[in-house]
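Data availability (excerpt). The following record was deposited with the supplementary files.
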Amino acid sequence: MSLKERARKLQTDIPALFLALKDKETPIVAKVLAGITVAYALSPIDLVPDFIPVLGYLDDVILLPTFIVATIKFIPENVLERCRKKSEGMWKEGKPKKWYYAMPIVLIWLAIIALLLKVIFF
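Predicted structure:
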């Protein structure tokens, strides 16, 4: 599978995970992972900012696909296929941009800063 095909597949997998998150047949573990994955994918803030050379883009190339693959392993095949079919063309105009999708990333960075301050000053 070429890189272009994988990128196209990600465009349908993220909305499919969003739909699986709401599906009653999706197990709790898969819902938690799907919530984390979708929040990270839709967040306007990356865990590793893009302006950091190499590492900034590696999180988009490695971290997000890893989240997606891990989440898909916990979703039953019939649920995933149903959600993939529903999600085709779902976000053609681009992914939704909501400020609250950034909250988990902001909270992680605040926790890291708080831990660093605690280590440095105490």
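Summary of structural features: The chain has a mean pLDDT of 80.
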